[in-house]
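ZP: hey, is the S-adenosyl-L-homocysteine complex queued? I don't see it on the tracker
AM: it wasn't, my bad. submitting now with these inputs:
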Amino acid sequence: MSFSASIITLFPELFPGPLGASVIGRGMAEGRWRLETTQLRDFATDRHRTVDDTPSGGGAGMVLKPDILARAIDTVSPEGDPRPRLLMSPRGKPLTQARVRELAAGPGAVIVCGRFEGIDQRVIEARALEEISIGDYVLAGGEVAAMVLLEAVVRLLPGVLGAAESHADESFENGLLEYPQYTRPPLFEGREIPEVLTSGDHGKVAKWRRAQSEQLTQARRPDLLK
Ligand code: SAH
């Protein structure tokens, strides 16, 4: 059974978007993962297909209504669906490569994309939505955030990246940022490739890369070393 993503959104036309390109799109075409989108508005019950209302307590903007979202979630992910239910949200736990790896090892994900000021707190609790943030900034909606999460997850699924594009040594996989990469030509605008990389000594190369990774992580992301 392949990884199955279900997205609940007011803008299904944004998908697959970038998820249809390159290795991620090829993985979908090969059946290594599947994507289904659901239009939240289809679950509205009034003539105007209203999905939002003004915030209780006042203030600017609109809030997605809990009853409509709950119906959408229950339809997309009925009881017994083993997939985690995620809500893209700037208040969520920041997404990490470790969480990405866990999701990639699982059956898929049901992903709710917020819009406007966000969604009613009661549906977050009633449907046990796991809030996930892609960073400390505010987007206009959860769709791009959901694409970021899925792109990170799908590239880890078996067979999506060829052996030539393996991810064993990448940034975050070993708690460090990746070392600098070089390729031909040997001389570019007066800059040479570090000599160790062309020495043919694999042990030395590995040591140099490890040292570069550690230095870079220390300089740019000391928080990762803790
Ligand atoms: N008023 C909210 C922001 C709403 S932004 C607040 O201050 O917390 C509208 C929607 O965009 C959110 O419901 C969420 O789904 C999405 N979104 C915005 N920033 C995001 C982020 N950093 N990570 C994940 N989703 C985000």
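AM: back. The CA atoms of residues 175 and 195 lie 26 Å apart.
ZP: great, adding it to the tracker
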